[in-house]
Each structure stands twice: as structure tokens, then as C-alpha cells.
Amino acid sequence: MTNIQATQSEQFQDRFGRLVAARLSAGTAELSHDVAERLRAARVQAVARRRPASLRAATTVSNSGGAATLTFGDEGQSLWNRIASILPLVALVAGLFVIQVAQDERRAHEVAEVDAALLTDDLPPAAYADPGFIQFLKTGGE
């Protein structure tokens, strides 16, 4: 249903409601005070329950910048829909946590390999800190 059809439907419903209200109001002069008060209270409740047009549930698809969004209005706010909307966020956080743990483990393994290579090498670790050693490596170790 397009927006024009929805607007026409709402206008028809509003017109019909006004006609029914006018017809019912015309006959209230013949009713007793108690019945008239109950009808007035029921009318107040009916008007209070009527949702404005902006709050009515509507299923719409909006397209913006190559991404389509499907909205369900008030109908889409059930418990399962809320859980389904939070589930991707939970999966993202869990995935980021797993990636962080894997990277920390990989870094620790790399550092352990370098430390093992330094400790099992023929050169003492202090040789790597010597400024002459860098020159030795640049000349090709002759």
C-alpha cells in the first residue's frame, strides 16, 4: 500500500468516525443522565486509545544509499525480535574477543621464538646491544 492510499484510507476512517459520532450525539438528548455519562466516559476512553497516525504500526522498506531497511513499527518490538537484533552485536563482540586472544597468543609465540633463538645462539645477548655489532652485520660479518 502506498503512502497516498494509506492517507486516503485514514481520511476515510476519520470521516466515517465523525459521521458515526454525529449520529450518536444526535440521539443523546433522549437518554437519561446515567446513560449519557457512561457514553461520554466510553467516548473519552475510545479517543484516548486511538493512536495518532505517526504511531500506527507500519511495515515499510526504505532505501537510502544502496542499503534497504525493513521496519515493522510497533509489531517488530517483540521479545524475539529484540533478541534477534541484539544477537549480531553479541556475535561481533565475541568475534573481536576471539581475534584479540588469537593475536595475543601469536605475539607471545613470536616473542618466545626470538627469545629462544637469542638464548641458544653462539653470541651472548650483550653482543646484540653493542654498537660495533651493528657495524659488523653491515659489513657482512667478515
Structural class of the secondary structure composition?
mainly alpha
How much is the average pLDDT? 78
Order of helices and strands: HHEEHHH
Count the helices. How many? 5
Task: Estimate the global geometry from the Cα principal axes.
Answer: rod-shaped
Q: Reading side by side through the largest sheet, how are the strands ordered?
A: 1-2
Distance between the termini: 85 Å
> What is the alpha-carbon Rg in Å?
38 Å
What does this structure look like?
The protein is 68% helix and 7% strand. It has 2 domains: 1-75, no CATH class; 78-142. The model has no long low-confidence stretch (mean pLDDT 78). The protein is rod-shaped, with a radius of gyration of 38 Å. The longest helix has 42 residues, at 79-120. The protein has 142 residues and is mainly α. It has helices at 3-26, 33-49, 79-120, 125-129, 131-138, and strands at 60-64, 67-71. It has 5 helices and 2 strands; from the N terminus they run H-H-E-E-H-H-H. It has a two-stranded antiparallel ribbon.
Question: In short, what is this structure?
Answer:
68% of the residues lie in helices and 7% in strands. The chain is built from 5 helices and 2 strands, in the order ααββααα.
Q: What's the arrangement of secondary structure elements?
A:
Blueprint: H1 3-26, H2 33-49, E1 60-64, E2 67-71, H3 79-120, H4 125-129, H5 131-138
Antiparallel strand pairs: 1-2
Essential attributes:
142 residues, mainly alpha, 2 domains, two-stranded antiparallel sheet
